[in-house]
Write a structure and sequence with these properties.
alpha/beta; 11 strands; elongated; six-stranded parallel β-sheet
């Protein structure tokens, strides 16, 4: 919002520049056509494909784009929230939890029809035709080939996309940084799945049946996912070594792992 409002970079954050002293009905943006007293904006939460009533292309996703805790906060701010039936079932969230948070439960077609701003982890390309004039907040990846194709189809259908991967990776926007948060989950999950495939103790054991040495874990790549993998491996008692094309040995050592030089 700030770049569209401020004309003088030197007055960032001041009341006069942000227009706080303006009349209550004055638009914040030049093309803002919202009339005073307009009904609350309706937010729609779509299923990712695991719901029986919301099958989309591919295998779908067990996650859900909005949890009841966030929905409750948005409801307090005056938003109306419509959630597709069964959207959170495979994420461990029942429809009752959304209803207690002040949400309405509806079918997929009703959510698309009522929602002015729609939320979905994966862009539901098959439904773009029925989303004309709406806004979709989703994981688009507009700089990738797949994302460019999605943007092109959305443009043809008159749909506005908000790409959550385009959030700048700066301190003030860390809460919105989906790339970092999901990379951390991926690093943790990688170790959990590797542990299951390994099928042995990770930590050193001394039992009546004998001694077991600790497992050896080698992490390639020490970004957000790699550091999360190091932390999880160390917590399981493994001896961890790591390497990256960058020299991040200080970060690796701070996690309790050993740096491998090539």
């Amino acid at each position: 919002l700030a770049p569209a409002v401020l004309s003088d970079p030197g007055c960032v954050g001041t009341r006069s520049c942000l227009g706080i002293g303006m009349a209550a009905n004055a638009p914040l943006l030049q093309n803002d056509g919202l009339a005073a007293g307009q009904a609350a904006t309706v937010l729609g939460v779509l299923s990712e494909g695991y719901s029986p009533e919301g099958k989309v292309e591919g295998a779908g996703d067990q996650r859900v784009s909005m949890v009841p805790e966030v929905a409750a906060q948005l409801a307090k701010d005056g938003y109306q929230i419509v959630v597709e039936k069964g959207a959170g079932i495979y994420a461990g969230i029942k429809d009752d939890a959304f209803e207690k948070a002040g949400c309405q439960i509806a079918s997929r077609s009703q959510v698309i029809q009522k929602g002015q701003v729609l939320f979905s982890l994966e862009p539901p390309v098959r439904d773009f035709g029925s989303m004309k004039g709406k806004i979709l907040v989703s994981w688009v990846g507009r700089l990738l080939d797949k994302g460019k194709d999605i943007v092109s189809k959305a443009t043809e259908c008159g749909l506005t996309l908000i790409d959550v991967t385009a959030v700048p990776r700066i301190t003030i926007a860390q809460k919105l940084d989906v790339l970092s948060s999901q990379a951390k989950v991926a690093g943790h999950r990688a170790v959990v799945e590797a542990t299951h495939a390994y099928g042995r103790f990770h930590t050193a054991e001394m039992t009546a049946a004998g001694k077991y040495p600790p497992s050896q874990t080698f992490v390639l790549g020490c970004g957000v996912a790699g550091l999360a993998a190091i932390g999880t491996s160390k917590a399981l008692g493994s001896v961890v070594r790591a390497w990256d094309v960058r020299d991040v040995s200080d970060q690796v050592h701070s996690m309790g792992a050993k740096w491998v030089s090539v």
